[in-house]
Amino acid sequence: MSKINAVAIERQYCSGGSEIGKRVGEMLGIPCYDREIVELAAERLGITSEEIRKFEEWVISPIKAQFHLRRENQLDMFEKVFAAETEIIAEYARRGPCVIVGRCAGYILKNITRTLKVYICATAESRTERAVSEHHIAFDDADNVLKRYDKKRGDFFNVNTRQNWSSMLTYDICLNSSALGVEGCARTICDMVRASGWGDELKGK
């Protein structure tokens, strides 16, 4: 079994996936990339990060999205956004071991370096609590917001990878942050990375 050099995390909205990714990076002593990917892609394309997010949200479904984007003459920029993000993610991985949150990183890195593909989920109750306490979303609106963001993430992933974002078969491991907590999820991921032989070259130094 080859050494794991990258961790790619997909996550339900408000499941703590970004926090888990950051914690994994801290525990392994490697960089974690998240929003930096959007900001750098925007810089390279000469648009704002908010415009990047709007183009990503054009996605509706693998079939309807293509029709809708062509109708609005946006397909070219939609493809440029994903191409820029793909290039950036590949560059990060080639620099050395890293954690990447979102943006189809597991799919992008499949032929570049051995990547641990992780999916973080959580109960509706804990996600609602996080949405209210951390994102200041009104309790009565939380359920609709969670569903809307999950759909956006799922559609973006499904269209660009032709894989199923929410299927366990898409990933190497699926973790419930409601049961394990941020630290428990991070430790589990780190244990898997280390078990692959990562860091052996540092032993004895």
Poorly predicted tracts of residues: 60-65, 201-205
* CATH class categorisation: Alpha Beta
Principal-axes geometry comes out as: globular
Largest sheet: number of strands, sense, barrel closure? 5 strands, parallel
Helix content: 55-70%
Write the H/E string, N to C: EHEHHHHEHEHHEH
Count of domains: 1
What's the β-strand tally? Answer: 5
Spatial extent as radius of gyration: 17 Å
Our measurement of the CA-to-CA distance between the termini, rounded to an integer number of angstroms, reads 24 Å
CATH superfamily: P-loop containing nucleotide triphosphate hydrolases
Class per helix and strand makeup: alpha/beta
Oligomer: single chain
Please tally the helical runs, counting DSSP H or I stretches of 4 or more residues: 9
Topology:
Blueprint: E1 6-11, H1 17-28, E2 32-33, H2 35-45, H3 49-56, H4 64-71, H5 75-95, E3 98-101, H6 105-108, E4 115-121, H7 124-135, H8 139-161, E5 173-176, H9 177-195
Parallel strand pairs: 1-3, 1-4, 2-3, 4-5
Helix pairs in contact: 1-9, 2-3, 2-5, 7-8
Describe it.
The chain has a single domain, classed as P-loop containing nucleotide triphosphate hydrolases (Rossmann fold, 3-Layer(aba) Sandwich). The chain contains nine helices and five strands. Mean pLDDT is 87; it is low at 60-65 and 201-205. Helix 2 packs across helix 5 and helix 7 (124-135) packs across helix 8 (139-161). Strands 2-3-1-4-5 form a five-stranded parallel β-sheet, with helices on both faces. The two termini are 24 Å apart. Helices cover 58% and strands 11% of the residues. The chain is an alpha/beta fold and 205 residues long.
